[in-house]
Amino acid sequence: MEHMLWANMNPKDRSLTAGTQAEPPPPTTPTSDDARRIRRLMFYFGMVYVVEGIGQTDGIIAQPLTYYFKEVHSWTPVQVTAALTAFNLPWIVKPIYGLVSDFVPLFGYRRKSYLILASILATLAYLLAAQMEAPSQLLFVLVLTAYAMAIASTLCGALLVENGQRYGTSGAFVNQQWLWFHIAAMSSALIGGLLVQYLSPAGALHSAALIAGIAPLMIVFGTWYLVDEEKRPIDLPELKLAARSLLAAFRLRPLWIAAVFLFLYWFSPGFHTPLYYHMTDTLHFSQGYIGILGAISSAGSICGALVYRQCLAELTSKHLLQ
Fold this sequence. Notes:
By secondary structure, the chain is mainly α. The chain is 76% helix and 0% strand. It has helices spanning 2-7, 11-17, 32-55, 62-72, 77-85, 89-92, 94-103, 112-129, 135-167, 170-198, 201-214, 217-226, 236-249, 253-266, 272-282, 287-312, 317-321. It starts with a helix and ends with a helix.
């Protein structure tokens, strides 16, 4: 259950909490086989989070989609924000994906099968989006991509924490995913802005959807060739027990206190869409320049990940928190 709950966090939450978990010490004499598996996993986690940085609905398609609704369908900021809110639901219910995959293996695998099918779903949905222009159809298939990306994020996070605890490399794995997620997010912001600047609104949207649709195929092949997982039987009694435990947790007062704190911490009015309209209509920024501005925050996160890798990786969790 511990790895399932940890995997249900989004990338930012995991990066904040990974250092506080009690990691088992790394093996004193790692075998060459262990070293090979760690290298493969490092490559795999970097690859998966590159796909997430590109393929999430706030990745490469974000700016082209908003611009398309604004220019072609004359949507107001309120209409755009209301439509984009639908993409949040798949991430809110992430604990369900982890719970089901933990105890109901698909074709004998708790992670691999779900990851492959979710990635195929993302590819198919994005390729459909590359052919569509009606807002209702676009939103429907993009919600499917959001579900696919949320499932892939949850199950890859579960693989990360399981193998991180096994090899004592949780910090290195989390740093790897954080680094490459933001490299992809920065690149996506830049490319998305350039697509909008140099193509028609529909052309930019369809090109971004095509790029986002090709990316998940990397997860399909990477999961098949790089992830070693033993087959497990379905464990329905454990699933029922875990579900009852999860429901019982909702009656705990400390959980609700933490939930209220997190809600207040993250609560803020929808700012991104009105700001985009203001930069476009009032400040007359070019779309390429808006893409550059969107990439700046990711650039800062990349710097932080590199500093950790070079200077802080050997520190204990206690010293990092101090």
